[in-house]
Amino acid sequence: MRTITITVNGLSREATVEDNELLLNVLRDKLGVTSVKAACWRGECGLCTVLLNGLPVKSCMTLAVEADGKEVVTAEGLYSDERARKLQESFVEHGAMQCGFCTPAFVVTSHYVLSRDPEIDGEDLKRELSGVICRCGTYYQIYDAVRDARKYYKDKNL
Length: 158
Ligand code: FES
Ligand code: FES
Prior knowledge:
Ubiquitin-like (UB roll), 2 domains, five-stranded mixed beta sheet, 5 helices, 16% strand, binds FE2/S2 (inorganic) cluster
């Protein structure tokens, strides 16, 4: 066991972890960050996606010790970002969810994608979001929500 420190959604958090403990488990079970979901536990569904030092990673494929000293952002942490808040509102406006189980991962991934390329569209957008699976099949509403939110990521005043 060892104690690690992770900045989670802007707050410095400590956790005592095993060397082989997953970041997913530590976030959910030890730090109470429950927007991070899991279905496959083997890197396929993308529901456990978080931003680690700004890059999307699957937290079921990431050891907690790998996040020691780093910054993790989840859907909860995006609410303080004006653009990301409007992105989430766009998901609601477009009905881009049924059960909502995949929504936090899509919001995190979409925020990352739009932050890099606010003009993205078409097959490029689908490819960039393809790491997250929606078992309810609301893909077209998700694409519409993300496309509609592009204007916020182009807005220099936000
Ligand atoms: S639970 Fe991590 S990719 Fe499915
Ligand atoms: S809305 Fe149910 S899994 Fe995507």
